[in-house]
Structures are given as structure tokens and as C-alpha cells.
Design a protein that fits this description.
This protein is an alpha+beta fold and 414 residues long. Helix content is 16%, strand content 40%. The protein has helices at residues 3-13, 236-249, 251-260, 276-289, 348-351, 387-401; strands at 23-32, 44-48, 52-59, 66-74, 80-89, 97-100, 105-108, 112-118, 125-132, 139-142, 147-154, 164-171, 176-183, 198-201, 204-208, 214-218, 224-229, 292-298, 303-309, 317-324, 329-338, 344-345, 365-367, 370-375, 385-386, 404-412.
Length: 414
């Protein structure tokens, strides 16, 4: 392919928008890794804890020669702690999420999860077993070093099952399921959005409603402990219109129940909410007309981040609210948080913003006022200029030196 093709690809990733910048890039660490030119960003999964950054690359995903390579790096130095081929097997599967515990790695695929324990050599892992799952769980979260939560929020077609929130706690010491829970979810009709509506903090599970900010708290036995609405994120008009819209979306659940009860005559007989066109229409309507919570994530042991999308953002910005769960109060608000690179590049952050729109598997890692992200483009080559010139520099570097993996360390501005 021509150089122009790759240049246009880089530019398409970084469109132009007016923005607010709340962070600054303070450090970078890098490591040389083998990289397939046919690799897509959807083949890359990252996760991190306080000291280590984990990168998983799935190669040949669309073939039966499936391989997963893992990289574990020290966040502060970028030094490789280990590079290991976790899987190299003749089977097809899609990697959905990754669970990291003290001595275990879990790979969640379409309808099973595979787990690994330390190998015979230092800093290596060996494949132990595969556990079949009746339900295709979407994500997993660590509860502690012996418990893992698998969950799914999804609007199934009535012929495929009930729609709602599914949770399952797994004891990873014996690979046994400790508890399961299902409940109807008020905005399940929006589940095809790029979203993250659940997080685990201090062994408590928190699930938020995207249109109202209602936060439900569960213990590790999946029992509901309490719920409350987080006030101050939606204005009065948004509160009213969102509640009305949420009630309208309940028709998904009502239709689902009607089908199960064989009551499909009349009101729901011509329902097209589950068609591809119907679902896409609801997603488009929501993004163009309503404020809604797109993601929640942990910042520290008591504070979570809540990202709200609004029609004025044009899918390029988000409003970030930080919320102390223990005190039940908003801590700070960052309006119009920039998620894209700018047309005129004046500083590193203009080209490497913290993108809060990213999928669960590539989401930035927050640790108090420090944020870690990653890129394939060498930030040490940065120079100010227009987006075309800056992108050309990175393209030439990749052609000359190949791909490298860079961890970017950001500080939130006070």
C-alpha cells in the first residue's frame, strides 16, 4: 500500500474539534515488540495494576491458527518482566476480556474462559484448563485474588433468551461458580453502545443506570445492599427527558416477557425493536438527543470516574465526573474532556489525549491523578505543527524502525 494510505489512516484516527485539555504528558517508557502489520487494534487488549502493565496480542484471530502473546511490563521503567506465548492452538475464538489476579491470568472468549498459572520458568505462565460457560459473558472484573466476576448487560432477541444484567462470581481457587444473579436492566435497549456500566471497588460491585445515574451496590454474594441516585450530573431538563425516555425503552423488556408468555398478539405483535435497523435507530436517537452515562471506572479505592456523553459533544468529547462512593458526593467535574487529536499540534497532549471513549479492553488506567495509556507511535519524535506533518514523522519512523509499544504517563492538571 502507498504511504498516502497510511497517512490518511492516521489522520482518520485523529479528527479535529474544539476541546478542553485537563492533563499533561509527563513521561514515556517503551519496549520493542514483534508486531504484525496485519494486526488490528481490536486484536490488542491491555490491563494494568499498581505496578505492571499487561499487553495481550491476539494474532490470526480469523483463522484456526490462533495465537495469544502476552507482555508484562514494569510501569515505571518499561522493562519487560516477561514475554510469553500463552496460546498457540488450532482453534477459532474471539478474545473478549482478560482477568488478572495475583498468580493467574484468565482469558474470556466467546463461550468459555481459559486460565493460566505460573509456569516452570520464571515469569512465565502455563495453560491449565478451559471452563465452558452457558452464557457468553462480555467482561470480567477482579473482586479479590480468589474471586472473579463475569458479567453481561445485553438485550437478547426474545428467541435467544431474556434481556438484562447477568452476573456470575467464580472462585478461582477451585474454578467453581459461587453465585449467579439476573435482573432486568432499565436501559438494556442501549446495551449495544460502546459502554461500561459496572465496576468493582473494595470487593463491592457497582452497577449504574446510564439515563438516571441510579447506582446499585452489591456484595460479592451478589446481594443488593443499597441504591441511590447520583445527583448533580444531569440538569433538570435532562432528568425529566431521560426518565421519560427510559420508560419508553422498557418496551424492550415488556416485549421480551410477552414473547416468553406467548402473549405476542396486539400491542407487541409488530414490534421491530429487535431488528438490526430498530436497534441502530435507538442508538442513533440516543446519541443525537440525550445525555447518558457512557462509562464508569475506578480512580482509587474510594473514587470512581463517570463519563457522560451529550449531543453537543459530537462523539468527540465527554464530561467526566469523579464521585466518592463512600462519602456519596461529587469530587470534581471536567467538562468537554478532549478525546481526539487536534488539527494544529502545539504540545504532546494535542496528539496524545486520554481517550475516554476507548473500548473496555483498551481503556486508560487511572491511579489517582496519574493516568497510563499506550500507543504505537514514538512520542519522543514529537514536534509541533499541523496534523499532516506530525503524522508523516511517525509514519516514517515506523517504516524505518518497525513498531514499538509505548506507555504514556499523564498527570491530571490541578
Amino acid at each position: 500500500m502507498s504511504n498516502n494510505f497510511f497517512l490518511l489512516l492516521l489522520l482518520s484516527i485523529f479528527p479535529n474539534v474544539t476541546y478542553s485539555q485537563y492533563s499533561r504528558l509527563v513521561d514515556t517508557v517503551s519496549t520493542q515488540i514483534s508486531y504484525s502489520k496485519n494486526l488490528r487494534m481490536s486484536d490488542v487488549h491491555v490491563t494494568a495494576n499498581e505496578s505492571n502493565y499487561y499487553l495481550f496480542i491476539q494474532t490470526n484471530k480469523l483463522s484456526t491458527n490462533n495465537k495469544i502473546i502476552s507482555y508484562q511490563l514494569d510501569i515505571k521503567t518499561g522493562r519487560n518482566l516477561h514475554i510469553d506465548t500463552l496460546l498457540d492452538i488450532p482453534m477459532y475464538f474471539v478474545l473478549r476480556d482478560i482477568g488478572i489476579q495475583k498468580n493467574r491470568i484468565y482469558l474470556f472468549t466467546d463461550d468459555e474462559y481459559l486460565y493460566f498459572e505460573p509456569g516452570n520458568s520464571k515469569n512465565t505462565f502455563q495453560y491449565v484448563n478451559r471452563i465452558d460457560s452457558v452464557l457468553r459473558y462480555e467482561y470480567c472484573e477482579k473482586i479479590n485474588d480468589s474471586l472473579l466476576l463475569a458479567y453481561l448487560i445485553y438485550n437478547f432477541h426474545p428467541a435467544d433468551g431474556k434481556s438484562g444484567l447477568f452476573m456470575q462470581v467464580i472462585n478461582t481457587n477451585n474454578q467453581k461458580v459461587l453465585s449467579k444473579h439476573f435482573e432486568k436492566y432499565s436501559s438494556v435497549a442501549l446495551s449495544s453502545l460502546n459502554k461500561r456500566w459496572l465496576t468493582v471497588l473494595d470487593e463491592k460491585i457497582y452497577v449504574i443506570s446510564p439515563l438516571t445515574g441510579n447506582l446499585r451496590e452489591y456484595n460479592k454474594e451478589l446481594q443488593l445492599l443499597n441504591e441511590h441516585v447520583i445527583n448533580g450530573m444531569f440538569n433538570k431538563t435532562e432528568v425529566i427527558t431521560n426518565k421519560t425516555y427510559e420508560n419508553y425503552l422498557q418496551e424492550f423488556i415488556e416485549y421480551n416477557d410477552a414473547v416468553y408468555n406467548n402473549d405476542t398478539i396486539g400491542k407487541y405483535s409488530n414490534n421491530n425493536l429487535f431488528s438490526k435497523e430498530g436497534i441502530q435507530n435507538i442508538l442513533d436517537t440516543t446519541e443525537k438527543n440525550f445525555a447518558f452515562i457512557k462509562k464508569i471506572f475506578n480512580i482509587n479505592t474510594s473514587v470512581i470516574g463517570i463519563c457522560i456523553s451529550r449531543p453537543t459533544h459530537n462523539k468527540e468529547q465527554l464530561d467526566l465526573y469523579t464521585y466518592n462512593i463512600k462519602k456519596r458526593e461529587l469530587v470534581s467535574v471536567y467538562k468537554n474532556w478532549n478525546c481526539i487529536s487536534q488539527k494544529n499540534i502545539m504540545e504532546l497532549e494535542d496528539f496524545y489525549p486520554i481517550d475516554l471513549r476507548l473500548q473496555h479492553s483498551r481503556f486508560p488506567n487511572f491511579q489517582d491523578d496519574t493516568v497510563y495509556t499506550y500507543t504505537w507511535l514514538n512520542p519522543k519524535l514529537f514536534t509541533s505543527g499541523n496534523k499532516m506533518d506530525v503524522s508523516s514523522i511517525y509514519l516514517n519512523d515506523i517504516k524505518k524502525n518497525g513498531y514499538q509499544f509505548y506507555i504514556l504517563k499523564h498527570k491530571i492538571k490541578k
